[in-house]
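To whoever picks this up:

The nightly regression suite flagged Isochorismatase-like domain-containing protein as changed. Nothing in the input moved, so I suspect the structure step. Input below, exactly as stored in the fixture:
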Amino acid sequence: MTFSQSSTALICIDFINDIVHPDGKVAKHGNADFIARNDTLSKVEQLQTWAKNKDYLVIHVKIGFSDNYNPHPTTSPLFGSAKKNNIFVSDTWGTEFIAQLANQGNDLLIEKRRVNAFYSTPLADILRSHNISQLILCGCATDLAVQSTARDAHDRDFIVTVVSDCCVAKNEDVHNSTLQLLTRIASVTSLETILKQKI
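Regenerated output under the current build:
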């Protein structure tokens, strides 16, 4: 597994307060505890620093809806109750990136309306315009946004690497079983292995 400075991008998905902060409306369902047990945010911070030192393209993707929740998938088992519970409202604390991993400098920001980071977003166009062929993925949740994005990226012919200990799920069983499935379409590796990579 090798990465090229000119063709690699790090994509960080849904590290927003509602999802990963201990006071977040979704995080309290398991994500925050998972992060505390596994020191995940510190590891993601190391991954981001490594990528920036390599001059890789760094992209932050987050879920967000307007305050009138348009377009909001009311029939979705995952997002259907967002409007009722006032979750994932754009330009509020809940959809801000958690301070430890906040968007910095020349990082790119994309807001999405669904699980998959590619769905109805300019992500694919951005990657192609930068001649990116290799993607390094981290984010929350392993079984949702990370998995969905990895599978879509694979079908778009990107070379995909998922950094296992820089992803978050509601518990370790869900996290590990999803990573095992992803080995069919991506390289699944650890932060330690990633940090050893050279240009």
